[in-house]
Design brief:
This protein has 151 residues and is α+β, with helices and mostly antiparallel strands. It is 46% helix and 20% strand. It has a single domain, classed as Glutaredoxin (3-Layer(aba) Sandwich).
Length: 151
């Protein structure tokens, strides 16, 4: 009896892990698309008319030149579909990025990943381009880039 109870618990844990932990196969291609080459801002929105998505688009439209300088790529995932808006197309899937970002709902969210593929910012409200630039410009890798550009 105790052995069958333990087997049931192990099975339940395996189901929970498979549900909440993205598999390596579904996420491996995502960071490889930008690792050590780009910083990536992902804007998630449930639909194209989302008020926060529209506000975020306006904030980024004003300062696009700073994106290239900081090696930033802007990807929108609206209604589950990924679209590169600024920068080179990373050719990533909406579900792959969603899994990598551990995004579990359909609500608006802005996520910033560094060149090291680590999570640097997560916000449920629109973020100004200047705030993102200031955050990036404080990062050690970016400070090194700025020093090299100055020389």
């Amino acid at each position: 009896m105790p052995n069958s109870s333990w087997n049931g618990i192990r099975t339940a844990l395996a189901v929970v892990a498979a549900t909440f932990i993205p598999s390596q196969a579904s996420t491996a291609e995502v960071p490889e698309a930008w690792a050590w080459k780009h910083r990536v801002i992902v804007v998630f929105a449930p639909h194209p008319e989302d008020v926060d998505l529209i506000a975020q688009r306006r904030a980024f439209a004003r300062i696009q030149e700073g994106f290239e300088e900081r090696h930033l790529v802007l990807v929108e995932i609206v209604s589950g579909t990924a679209n590169t808006v600024i920068g080179p197309d990373l050719n990533v899937s909406g579900s792959g990025v969603r899994n990598y970002a551990r995004k579990t709902d359909e609500q608006f969210e802005v996520v910033l990943f560094g060149k090291d593929t680590g999570l640097k910012l997560r916000s449920t409200k629109p973020v100004s381009a200047n705030a993102i630039f200031a955050l990036i410009d404080k990062m050690p890798m970016r400070r090194d880039e700025m020093r090299r550009q100055a020389n």
